[in-house]
Each structure stands twice: as structure tokens, then as C-alpha cells.
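Quick one before lunch.
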Amino acid sequence: MFFHIVLERNMQLHPRHFGRNLRENLVSKLMKDVEGTCSGRHGFVVAITGIENVGKGLIRDGTGFVTFPVKYQCVVFRPFKGEILEAVVTMVNKMGFFAEAGPVQIFVSNHLIPDDMEFQSGDMPNYTTSDGSVKIQKDSEVRLKIIGTRVDATEIFCIGTIKDDFLGVINDPAAA
Amino acid sequence: MSVEPFNRLVKLAARAFYDDITTKGDNQPKTGRSDNRGIAVVVLDALTRRQWVREEDLAKDLKLHSKQLRRTLRFFEEEKLVTRDHRRETAKGAKIFSAAVAATVDGQQTAKEGEEKIKLHTHSYCCLDYAQIYDVVRYRLQRMKKKLKDELENKNTVQEYICPTCAKRYTALDALRLISLDDEYFHCESCNGELVAESDKIAAQEGGEGDDNARRRRREKLKDMLQKMEVQLKPLIEQLSRVKDLPVPEFGTLQAWEVRARAAGRAANGDSSGIDPSRSSLGLGYGGSSLPFVGDTKVEVDLSGAEGKGEVIKSENESSLKVLPPWMIKEGMNLTKEQRGEAKQESKMDGSSASLEFTDDKKSLIENDDKKNIQDEYVKAYYAALLKKQQEIEEAAKKHDLSNAHSLNGLSSMSSSRQVGMKSKRDEDEGDDDVEWEEAPVASNANENYKVDLNIQADASGDDEDDDIDWEEG
Ligand SMILES: [Zn+2]
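Model of the zinc ion complex:
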């Protein structure tokens, strides 16, 4: 699920960035630092959408670095249990398959793949129905439901299922 | 707070979940003789009839080896059904507990009176924790149901994996760390063994290897189990819902309970005073148990005596108890009535009330207690004999008796009353105390038991009047 929230961060800026472009430098550094990171609390920071305010800088003794408290708006992505996501399959093996939904990695174990799909090993390992009409392999797009999340301080990992109504392959690259 | 519904819950749970629990270590051979299944149920049942109980006592009551009992109790402690407490205590501390037990558990305390030879030891006590039992049972049912349902629907379950070599467990949430680049399996982090998915276990038990047939069979089996569970555990579930809104019985910690139990016991004794059957029966219990142990009963008697004293002093509501001197007089009056042949039971009353007095006496309580019992017997015998002789002797001793009754304080007075007093007491009845007598009848119910005993004794010893006298002299 996506959220638009305000976060705060103390940015340290090297003295060489001081000058006319200080603010731009500050923002671009913030983007570089923050976008794509993950916090267990808020989820993945997808994009910074604006700066709320930049507080007074504090020059640090000895180094000349200046610390600015920056409040910024951003879009975060936080997966929840029970949420339905669309994801791209990245790897298939006998134990199930891995998929990515943006920054989130999801594992679907073979027990949560419909019973009529069987694992086929080979160059392109895949799960296929007996009539071959549906196939899950690398780069397939699937719709899945998250049934569990592991949230660490800097990482979120999910497990999902496609064994439910309206879940499963939504676009088969091989068929296209 | 009623314990009964909760006790029923415990009993149902015991039979549902702990019926075939064996507390033997795995290394011990399971021969038929060492098979102790069912003991768990017995222990739980026994605990429903007690509150806090010393584990040695429980073992003795159940005729179990204390080690075996302790093993069972430790198991229940882990199961969160039982709270235990351990403390080092002297013989006196143990006695305090015994007194508390005596105050709460009717009829079970008598055995404990005699076995107070405990030195400084660590004693363990245990008690059912009803609040927790309620939660534990519900949680257990919930887990059972969830596990079966999840597995049945094969849905929303976090797959678990086990390393067959080192038995380390993983879940699907660890998947990212477990993939290997070499093959398509998960590998153990510590031993690099190939992990096995756990839900294959039930299927594997049936010999199937995850194919469709096995899956179908597994589903059927699970469905069956779920159904059976609902049918077989229905009484338990119903009992749970019945208990749901009831206040849970709480005994508190061992110390708190002890204090309360003793206070309650005292209060109960105080209320009933000499008149209440339960009280008199208690008194008799003490007396009866102490008799065989004349040698080492001193402490116990002291306890009961002290309790008795406490009641007398503390219960201010009961004017009858307060006014001891009148009591004495009453007894005297009773005696006289009996002599008249109105009721032998009342004579019994006299005996018990007399014992009360004795406790108050400064004389050694032990002596009093023992003597009291014996005296009771003698008194009865005496009365029986006296009744026969009444008509003949009535007139002779009246004046002496009067004086005796008023001065009744200790054993000596008792003896005197026996010897001479029977006849004389009749006279007293006619006097001031008749009114008080009317209060006494309540006690007659309680005393009936005694009456029977006494009568028997009286019959047997009726001829032994001489002996009585000897005894007193001794
Ligand atoms: Zn291992």
C-alpha cells in the first residue's frame, strides 16, 4: 500500500556545496540518500515529492560539515498482510517462485501454488498446468496475495499465495 | 465465587488432553508396570478438591511416590495449569499451613494432625490456577482448530521447512536466505542440508509422497479429525462457554491464601461456637486424632487450643462465647438435665463445651484435651449409670453439686461433677440458668453422632464407673 507522508532527516552537507545552490544540493543529496531505502516502520521510500522545510544548519566542530534538519514529503510503499499485489516473477525453483513488486521481494512456496500446476525443471524452470495453458516462469506477471511479512529495520520480505480466486498469471510473456 | 464449574472444566480438560500423558522419561523402559498413564488425571482431580496443598501431603493422600507426583506436577506447571510455590520452613511453618488446610478442607485434615515431625525442609505447595487454565484450554482448542483448518484449506499458511540432518526449522519468510545457486532447493544455513517442507509430514506418514492421491487422503483425514474434534470436545467447549462469565476462583499466593484460610476458618468456628455442628465436629476431629498420638501431639493440641482461644476472644458478636463463666454453668445445667433423663445428647454438649473451657484454662492444654476425650466417655458412662440410679440417689447430693457446678474450672471440677455432680445438677436446673438452656437445642443435631458413639461407649463402659474414678485419680 502506498502512503504520502512527511518524514524528517538530518542531512550533513560538505562545505563545498555551500553557496548559491546550497538548497538544490541539499535536495538532490536527500533524494540520493533516501529514495529506494527501506525502513521497517514506514516501508520503502519510493519518491520524494517535496521539501516541507529546511531548518537552521549547525556547523560541526572540526569538520566544517553542516547538519540541516530537513522535513520532506515522500511516497512510501508498505506491504501488508492480506494485500493483493501484482508482481513480476524473478526466479522459479522446486520450492516455489520469487517475484518482485517494485522494491518488495515476495516468495510463493509451491504449497501456495494451485494444485494443478506442476513444476517443470529445465533451462526455464516453470510451473505449468497439465494442459499447458497456464505457465509461470521468469518474467511472468502474477497477481498474488500477501500472507506474511517479515519486517526488519531495513528490510521487508513477503510471502504470498496465488492459490485463491482471481490470483495467478495475468500476463504470460511466452504466450505474447 | 463458585469453584464447581471450573472444577468440571479442569476434569474435562484433564480427560481430553492429559489422559494418556506419561511422565516417565524417554530413556526409561515402558514396561506395563511403569506405565503411569492416567495419573495426570488423578492428580488434577485431586487438586480440584483442594486449594493450596503441600505436595507431600498430596502424595500421601494419593498413595503416590512423591517423586512421581512431583514429576507430574512439574509437567502441569509447564502446561500452566498449576502454580507451585517452594519455601524453606520449620515444623512450625508447616503447622501453620496444616491449620489453614484444616480450616478449609473439611474431613481431610485429620490425617495431617499426626504427621508433624518435619524439621527445616524445603516444602513445595501446589494449587490449580483456574484463570490460567481457562485461558490455556481455550488457547489449546484454538490452536488445534487453526492448525487443522489451515492445513485443510492449505491456505494462508506460512510454509515451514526442516533440516533433516540438524532439525533446524525455517519458514518461508527465510526463503531469501535459503536459496542456493547450485540447485533448486533450499539449504540449511548451518549444515547446508537440503530442507524438507514440513506439511508433507502428514502425507508422508501415510506413505504417500505428495502426489494427488496422498493429498486427497490427507484432506479427508484432516476433515475427519476436525469433525471428531468438534464432537468429542463438545462437552469441554460447552463448559468453557458456561464458565465464561463467571468470576474465576482465585486463591492468591500461598502466603495470602494461608492467611485468608486461617482467618476464614477462625471466623467459621467463631460463628458456630459451641452450638454449630461443624465446629463441634472439628473439635472432635482434633480430639480423635490426637488420642492415638498422645505422645507427640502436644503441638497440635496447642494449635487447636490456641485457635479455640482465639475464637473465644475474638468473636465479640457471640455473647455466648464471651461469657465463659455462664457457659460453665450451662454445662452444669446440661448435665443435670441429662441426669433427669431428658436428653443424653445434651450431655455431649456439655463435654465439648467443657473442652472449650479447658483450653482457656491455664493448665496444660494437652492434658486437658486428652482428658477431655476420655472424660467424655466416662461422663457418658457415668450418666447412663446415673440415670439408673437417679431415683435412688437424687436427693442425697444436691447441695454439693450446686457448689461444684459454679466452681467448675478445670479437670478437677469435671471429675467432681462426674462423681458427685450428676445428681446434684438436677437441682440447679430448677435455678436461674434454665433460660440459657433453651438456646442449646440447635446443637443437638450435631451431637447426635456423638450421642451414638457415646451411647455405645456408655453401654460398654457403663459398668466401669469404678474405672472412671481411678482414671481421675491417676
Ligand atoms: Zn541443518
